[in-house]
């Protein structure tokens, strides 16, 4: 990566709010039923933060991300991105999902460039950016490989490059490593921490994994079972640069992980 690295230290968050979720409620209504997916959820994410959201299945985590992205309309409350109300699909964000959704007939480079084609980006700029991202995510040498020739972790790296191609200030990730085996997931977590530090992107990541939530998050948001509410927010104060093995033994990590587990355990019992 050639660009200057933004200085970071955990806990010192730029006060400028980038995402503001203010008292949102989300109801899904059909002829037969009404589902309250989110109930009075408020969350502010500052520039450069890495917020992880953990919560039981069905508590509205994906719905919350979709609302921030402008892909779903709230029943009540307000959402702003970069200080402007979200009223429709947002272009200046990146989105990564559990399934990498790569085009099977396109190689790595061309899959990443799909983003540039969809946005009509300047070709030379996009080409330069792809080179940077391929290097950043360790995909050098695989530029022409087709998705089926890649491991699951590599496929997710390609999806990550695609989500970052247009240099979005905000990256939303919905359980992006959920389909990977445990070891590959750890590697992706280490990589994700580096990508965050090196790009300065504001990230919100939804996960079912407690270690992933605590290792990656500068702040960890824990939600209750449906209707989803925020039950607690933790800021363990770990340094931004985190060696995996050392971090997992750090008392700040272990205490936060235990607390998240307790909260999720406690919320599960009321399921
Ligand atoms: N389009 C929709 N129409 C009706 N109900 C929906 C819709 N989208 C989500 N829901 C409901 O809203 C609730 C929250 O769903 P959501 O997918 O946001 O949860 P989640 O926390 O991301 O779950 P998981 O962890 O299992 O992915 C669920 O009960 C789901 O059935």
From TrEMBL:
SUPFAM superfamilies: P-loop containing nucleoside triphosphate hydrolases. One of its GO terms (molecular function) is ATP binding. The keyword rRNA processing does not apply. Keywords: ATP-binding, Nucleotide-binding, Transport. Residues 19-250 form the ABC transporter domain. The keyword Transport applies. SMART domains: AAA (SM00382). This is ATP-binding cassette domain-containing protein.
């Amino acid at each position: 990566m050639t660009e200057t690295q933004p200085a970071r230290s955990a806990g010192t968050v730029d006060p400028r709010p980038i995402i503001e979720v203010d008292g949102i409620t989300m109801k899904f209504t059909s002829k037969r039923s009404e589902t309250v997916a989110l109930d009075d959820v408020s969350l502010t994410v500052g520039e450069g933060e890495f917020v992880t959201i953990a919560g039981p299945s069905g508590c509205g985590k994906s719905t919350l991300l979709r609302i921030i992205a402008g892909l779903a309309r709230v029943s009540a409350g307000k959402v702003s991105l970069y200080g402007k109300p979200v009223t429709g699909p947002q272009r200046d964000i990146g989105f990564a999902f559990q399934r990498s959704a790569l085009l099977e007939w396109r190689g790595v480079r061309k899959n990443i460039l799909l983003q540039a084609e969809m946005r009509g980006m300047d070709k030379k700029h996009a080409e330069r950016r792809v080179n940077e991202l391929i290097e950043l995510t360790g995909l050098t040498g695989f530029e022409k490989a087709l998705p089926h020739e890649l491991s699951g972790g590599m496929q997710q790296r390609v999806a990550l490059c695609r989500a970052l191609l247009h240099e979005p200030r905000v990256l939303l990730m919905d359980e992006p490593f959920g389909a990977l085996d445990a070891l590959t997931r750890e590697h992706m977590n280490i990589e994700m921490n580096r990508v965050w530090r090196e790009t300065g992107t504001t990230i919100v990541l939804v996960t079912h994994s407690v270690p992933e939530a605590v290792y990656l998050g500068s702040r960890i948001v824990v939600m209750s079972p449906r209707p989803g509410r925020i039950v607690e927010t933790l800021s363990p104060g770990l340094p931004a640069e985190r060696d995996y093995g050392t971090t997992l033994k750090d008392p700040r990590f272990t205490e936060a992980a235990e607390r998240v587990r307790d909260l999720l355990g406690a919320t599960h019992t009321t399921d």
